[in-house]
Design goal:
Blueprint: E1 3-7, H1 14-29, E2 33-37, H2 45-53, E3 69-74, E4 83-90, E5 102-105, H3 111-118, H4 125-138, H5 150-163, H6 167-175, H7 183-186, E6 192-196, E7 199-208, H8 213-229, E8 234-241, E9 246-252, E10 257-262, H9 268-282
Helix pairs in contact: 1-3, 1-4, 3-4, 4-5, 4-6
Length: 284
């Protein structure tokens, strides 16, 4: 039998982990030889802790790359792998033309929800609970209006009713407030790497009640340092604050820092990075 390997994006967030885990369980039940791996050595502490709380030990999936395997990407559409990419399941918009035998890219609240919608009859109750969690975390408890369809809120609440889950308790976990204890680690929360043509971009974000000017300046300095160390063309850093429901987006280059404010929680994957992608793909 062919061996399939499922992998999420670099520094996987909760949706990336849950969607990889759910797809692994689904394909195993269908008789495929498949494993979900996390080749990353470091995972955000908040993501690791929340996964553990809901029954997924991410350390069991932290494994080395499998050479010459057939790979399935979840929750992203580009990553260098030591094999063939045969399928992609993602919910992040892109203007790129993707050549892949099996591709699904749909506007929906989470990749976990996308997989659940496609194969809802194959999942156990505890796995459906993970779908609810992924929906809430990836939309910051539906605070990101560009990240979900209106029907996603209804479907998530219906799942909670079916499973007798406390929606408000799950909603609190869905907020995933970022710890500010160690800013040298905080700045790379949700870190992702992108390649647009010949241009390399990295991005991260924090979700907090509030942030002081001193904390903000320190976080920006860590991002700038990472930009220089990795010779990036751009570093995009988002600060989302719950108390005023605002987002500040910092576009950092070696020569300049531009700030773009939003009076709501803006989606990095649905709004910010597509704009960055368009800019670089049009740049000569």
């Amino acid at each position: 039998m062919k061996q399939y390997v499922i992998v999420g994006h670099e520094n996987p967030d909760l949706d990336s982990v849950i969607s990889g885990y759910l797809l692994e369980q689904l394909l195993k039940r269908k008789g495929y030889s498949v494993q979900f791996i996390i080749p990353d050595k470091e995972i955000d502490t908040d993501t690791k802790t929340l996964c553990q709380k809901y029954g997924i030990d991410v350390t069991l999936h932290q494994k080395d790359w499998v050479i010459d395997a057939d790979y399935i990407l979840v929750d992203h559409h580009e990553r260098k792998v030591p094999g063939n990419i045969v399928a992609i399941i993602d919910h992040h918009p892109t203007s790129k033309i993707i050549d892949c035998p099996y591709l699904i890219n749909k506007h929906i609240c989470s990749t976990a929800m996308l997989i659940y919608e496609l194969f809802s009859d194959f999942f156990l109750e505890e796995e459906k609970k993970l779908v609810v969690l992924a929906n809430l975390v990836d939309t910051v408890a539906f605070h990101l209006p560009d990240k979900y369809r209106e029907v996603d809120i209804q479907l998530t609440k219906e799942l909670c009713q079916q499973l007798n889950l406390d929606y408000q308790l799950l909603e609190q976990d869905g907020m995933m407030v970022t710890s500010l204890k160690d800013l040298s680690k905080t700045y790379c929360n949700g870190l992702k790497r992108y390649q647009f043509g010949n241009y390399i971009v990295m991005s991260s974000y924090i979700q907090v009640e509030k942030v002081t000017k001193e904390q903000k300046d320190s976080l920006i300095s860590f991002c700038t340092k990472r930009l220089i160390e990795e010779k990036l063309d751009l570093y995009v850093f988002l600060i989302m604050t719950f108390l005023d429901n605002k987002t500040m987006v910092y576009y950092i280059t070696k020569d300049d820092i531009k700030v773009e404010p939003y009076s709501y929680f803006v989606s990095r994957g649905s709004v910010i990075m597509p704009k960055v992608e368009t800019y670089f793909l049009q740049k000569k």
